[in-house]
Amino acid sequence: MAVAGGSGCLAKAAAVLVLVLCMARWSAAGMGVNWGTQLSHPLPASTVVRLLKDNGFDRVKLFDAEDSILGALKGSGIQVMVGIPNDMLWDLAGSTKAAERWVT
């Protein structure tokens, strides 16, 4: 999420994110969220995990298996699904060894 216009726009974007998270908490039980990592101003993983838990999210889908994010989610009680990047699908589908290495 690239935010242009300085810290004022960043603060507004953060406020909108919190509002959406709060609204989602009251609208459905068992809510999940996709967690992207291509950001111009990423928050620390531990902060995002705390925000998710505070707002009732119990599932997250990751598109990048980054150690810092997985470490922050470890023991949090949040269910994690990791998506395989499109550019790796062919190799992983064609080789059990490649798939095992990716999981490891």
UniProtKB/TrEMBL annotation:
Which InterPro entries does the annotation name? GH (IPR017853), Glyco_hydro_17 (IPR000490), Glyco_hydro_17_plant (IPR044965)
According to its UniProt entry, the protein's GO biological process terms are:
carbohydrate metabolic process
Name the keywords, alphabetized: Glycosidase, Hydrolase, Signal
Q: Name the domain of life this protein comes from.
A: Eukaryota
User: A Gene Ontology MF term for this entry?
Assistant: hydrolase activity, hydrolyzing O-glycosyl compounds
Signal sequence segment: 1-30
Q: Which family does it belong to?
A: Belongs to the glycosyl hydrolase 17 family.
Indicate what this protein is called per its UniProt record.
Glucan endo-1,3-beta-D-glucosidase
Q: Which organism is it from?
A: Aegilops tauschii subsp. strangulata
